[in-house]
């Protein structure tokens, strides 16, 4: 069994910016240990809640599964009927759940850095995992991406990773380019030039997708988030045109090196970012990413539980 | 304790058409065994999800209860906030949940035979129970009806069973007439003549409700599904007129044989299909049907778990 | 550990009017015992459902947490997709869940005394806890208020308790004034005079909030329920004006006796009933009330389980 050298313990897990390279690797290794069957013992029955003020079944379900696999009880929370609709602040909602007995929670919200007010509130002492903040970060997605790459290559040093697509609106892009740099990988970018700007220059170089196909170890496609684009921008692309110009086509797949892998945070717009028949090809790690997401979230929630003194270490 | 001779094991349970008479009886007997207290041991913690894209609290809750009674963890899934709303196919949603660790699921959807695409997808290998497909089938309802009749009479041979009401729109009617024939019962039909057509001739004879009341062992009333009828059709009936012409009235109840029973898939429109005061009369098995539904669904989900190698048989 | 002298056992817990002073105290002491770590053993796996036809995450979550802490399995119920939308009566929904195997439930509904039809239905035999009925009662809120006061003062005799705010629309006000009288406390009222009427005269005296601040042991503020007021009434107040005239301000807090406490059923409209910075001051018991809510609801659900013969007493 793969073991981390010392147990991870965090008050909150909010941003990849807070994590040094060795901390990222500690999360990856802890997640691998969970994948290999590691279990933790709780010191008492413990309770999780998932506050998803922005929809995301996939991330929500993955956190819930992680919590259940850690032996937590998951308390149902439906934002649609919550007191937030009576004008209650998120901090008061969190404190109410804390008072009721919730020990750890995952939160997703459409406001960037929604968590600042929560962690600065001295009456909040439960552990919070950021499940995505607006156009900000999505640390559990970054960690599962890193885990999937590490599982494949065993190292980040010198690895060539392309991030392709809607860079300007993607939480995943920004978190991953920083983390990959920290870990020693080389980052490249692809996709529509108008979605690439000088914020990205410090992290990597833009290249045409054909060239990326030739040279990369990892082709990481981003979802074209229709809902984040205004209609006038959007009508520049049809699905077929986007796929032909910036997406993965059978021709580009044929140009990829044999060991190279395809990633995507999902859900994939089949036929847009990736040709339908390639989504589950042998080089695709897309469903493996989802599977790894559960183990990464186990590592995150376990680190919060450990900080709360709820893990019995022996 | 009632035991089945060999353990049921199915990749999926989708349609009554797939089941021979002895298989139906094996499900009924397994359900009776669960009702009598039978328990199964899982080889590891296992996870169920219920994807109800069409509303049905009753069936949904019954599946959930069955899953919990089998010792499964039930992962929350809310179709209203799922990625299906981002254009994801049902197959991709199912594969995402599978990747996350779901082992078995019940699905209800408004599209007939929605499951064909799922079972033909070679990347889907979890077990699926059909919780109802459009105007197609509703196998767990059929099995609970068979269980309830078998509990009452101990045999199907020569039993006279009437199916009364909205035959043309009812999943229950079509599944049950076939299964009852297979099992050796005689099927009769009642209700508005316009809802009876030559598709039903091969399975049984239409009769006036008064005559059915005189002769039947089982009076199975179907829900008048207002939502499936267009307004012009609908206005032909008032509740009182439907009950007087086609429903169970005290006068018809008085004509029924003493041993005859009343069934209904529920929810009953009280005063329409069945007079209010008769819904829970001594001859009614309506709430017993609901109770049996849990045990039948335990048998179904256990058969999927067994196929997945998740049941420890000793 | 604090122990009740004899185990509480009730068919249903619906109204504070049904409870004598010693029964209220028995619930308070049982709740304190649960808070101190008391656990119950169930005679078999038992199932709870929470039917919240009117939104209230806080009460809903608190009941769910209580049920989980008692070792119950909580069956998901979403009224938005239930058969109630197909015209099913609440009694039939309850009987369906009972048939499926639910042993105890908490119900909230917007109709006053919705529960009368349920408890008069001889086919309903599961245990029901009232989670709030329209403008009627909210017994678990009253009991948690009593528990919080008793924890603080150890006695009700001669205690001066003010209930301040929207008396005419508040379930909490009416239940609490009666119970506090029964328990020997003196009740006073405050807030807009137009919300005070002669129904309240028998229970206590109205005073200006400044005078209440000087004299009370407990200052219990009620939520200004915007949604229950018509717009024309509502526009008489701005938040600032309400706070200045009837709410807790720093000046009024300064007038309070050192031992006096602040209560509120939550969610607080910060800056309306209570100045933002006072919601979590040292004298506030608002979040302690929420914490106590779980233990009170454990006592309630345990009393229902005991009546059902589901608690193993030794």
Automatic annotation (TrEMBL), chains A, B, C:
Catalytic function, reaction form: carbamoyl phosphate + L-aspartate = N-carbamoyl-L-aspartate + phosphate + H(+)
EC number: 2.1.3.2
Pathway(s) per entry: Pyrimidine metabolism; UMP biosynthesis via de novo pathway; (S)-dihydroorotate from bicarbonate: step 2/3
PROSITE patterns: CARBAMOYLTRANSFERASE (PS00097)
Residue intervals of the Aspartate/ornithine carbamoyltransferase Asp/Orn-binding domain: 158-303
Cellular component terms per the entry's GO annotation: cytosol
Keyword Transferase recorded: yes
One GO biological process term: 'de novo' pyrimidine nucleobase biosynthetic process
Family listed: Belongs to the aspartate/ornithine carbamoyltransferase superfamily. ATCase family.
Biological role: Catalyzes the condensation of carbamoyl phosphate and aspartate to form carbamoyl aspartate and inorganic phosphate, the committed step in the de novo pyrimidine nucleotide biosynthesis pathway.
Cited PANTHER family: ASPARTATE CARBAMOYLTRANSFERASE (PTHR45753:SF6), ORNITHINE CARBAMOYLTRANSFERASE, MITOCHONDRIAL (PTHR45753)
Name this polypeptide is given: Aspartate carbamoyltransferase
